[in-house]
Amino acid sequence: MKPTPDRHPTCAALLFIVLALMCLKLFTQTDAANPTPRKLRRNKCYVVCGYTIFACIALIGSHSLLEHFYSSLAARLDCYNTVFWLESGSVLAFAIAWLVKGETFSFIRD
Fold first, then answer.
1. In this predicted model, what pLDDT tens digit does every residue of 50-94 receive, in sequence order?
2. Residue 11: how many other CB atoms lie within 10 Å
């Protein structure tokens, strides 16, 4: 029986790329010719959240490169659950963007 490859990193990366693109492209769209100052503020939040997700993906990728090339250093970092915390940071960044998009916070609502 052939061993199956671990698909979690690929699927997780694709999921987080889709979430980041939602923040950067979908959430920032507007029909108004002159968006309100609050919409511009929300757009800044979406951009920060999207780039935060991309940064977490890049750090997870660099961690996997460390595991491949410098296994002793990566073994010392494993006690900090690096990938778990970076994935959690990505989910948190998207959650913040989602809450802002849903107009949960009154101070940023139009």
1. 999 999 999 999 988 888 788 787 778 778 898 999 999 999 999
2. 10
Among candidates 103, 95, 89, which has minimal Cα distance to 41? 103
The one-letter code for the residue type at 70 is Y
**What is the residue range of 45's domain?**
38-105
Instruction: Report the domain count for the chain.
Output: 1
Region class of 2: left (phi > 0), else alpha (psi between -120 and 50), else beta: beta
Residue 30 lies in a domain: no
Q: Give the DSSP per-residue string, the chain.
A: -PPPP--HHHHHHHHHHHHHHIIIIITT----SS--HHHHHHHHHHHHHHHHHHHHHHHHHHHHHHHHH-HHHHHHHGGGTHHHHHHHHHHHHHHHHHHHHTT-SGGG--
pTM for this structure?
Answer: 0.89
Q: Residue 25 falls within a domain, yes or no?
A: no
Give a yes or no: residue 13 inside a domain: no
